[in-house]
Specification:
CATH topology of the largest domain: Rossmann fold
Distance between the termini: 31 Å
Number of domains: 2
CATH class of the largest domain: Alpha Beta
Strand content: 15-25%
Number of strands: 9
Strand order of the largest sheet: 5-4-6-7-8
Radius of gyration: 20 Å
CATH superfamily of the largest domain: Response regulator
Largest sheet: 5 strands, parallel
Structural class: alpha/beta
């Protein structure tokens, strides 16, 4: 680990100092951690790792973001009660949808919660989205338990922690040139929706759908929806 001013590099993670929770001492109050998704194996492993030391305890596990929000109950402050989690690990799939919903809820209802996102793979776009959405850190499914504990420790002490990625590669990716609405339309295409269905479900006119499709085809350099969907699915798998 190399320390330079308020920046720390740990196993490829960049951590930046921010005002945060007090460091947790052995034998002191444990920081409560909740997990969303991930499956029984991941939750069980996480519980074992956290209970093994380090000042953390797993206080709750929810299957998905809506379940977690229901359990949290009505808004009553940054943390909502003494038993609420201070840190939430998001491991639900697909991570893009779950991350957007959870981070929006945290910003509006539980600003005191720190979210760590567990990514399926180390992709620059996903790390960027986590950062821009307000997450405090992220790990990948391939990271060992020690890496998760290191990120948890950084976040608990008020330091955001993200793996190093080369964001310059995003500028060469045509999919990154799409707007949020265009990405929504493309995802709908990949699900087999017709223009009428996209219009109804996104609350826009069919002419607007056609306009977005034209922009999508132009930006991706494809002639039709079938090719656009094929490229989208290929990118998702990669």
């Amino acid at each position: 680990m190399v320390r330079k001013e308020n920046k720390i590099h740990f196993n490829g993670h960049l951590t930046l100092g921010c005002p945060g929770l007090q460091p947790v001492q052995d034998g002191g109050t444990r920081v409560k951690v909740a997990v969303i998704g991930g499956g029984a194996w991941f939750v069980g492993t996480l519980r074992t790792v956290l209970e093994g030391g380090g000042g953390f305890t797993l206080c709750s596990a929810a299957g998905d973001v809506p379940e977690f929000i229901r359990r949290a109950g009505p808004d009553s402050g940054p943390h909502s009660g003494p038993d609420a989690a201070a840190i939430v690990i998001l491991a639900e799939s697909p991570v893009e949808t779950a991350m957007g919903r959870l981070l929006q809820w945290v910003r509006s209802k539980r600003s005191g919660i720190r979210v760590i996102v567990r990514l399926p793979a180390l992709r620059a776009a996903l790390v960027r989205d986590a950062m821009q959405g307000g997450a405090w850190g992220c790990i990948t499914e391939d990271d060992p338990p020690e890496a998760l504990v290191a990120v948890l420790s950084s976040v608990a002490q008020g330091r955001v922690s993200f793996p190093y990625v080369d964001f310059s590669a995003l500028r060469a990716d045509p999919f990154e040139q799409l707007t949020r609405r265009e990405r929504e339309v493309l995802k709908a295409l990949a699900q087999g929706w017709s223009n009428t269905q996209i219009s109804s479900r996104l609350g826009i006119s069919e002419n607007t759908v056609k306009y977005h499709l034209k922009l999508i085809y132009d930006k991706l350099g494809v002639p039709n929806r079938a090719t656009a969907v094929a490229q989208f699915l290929q990118r998702a798998e990669g």
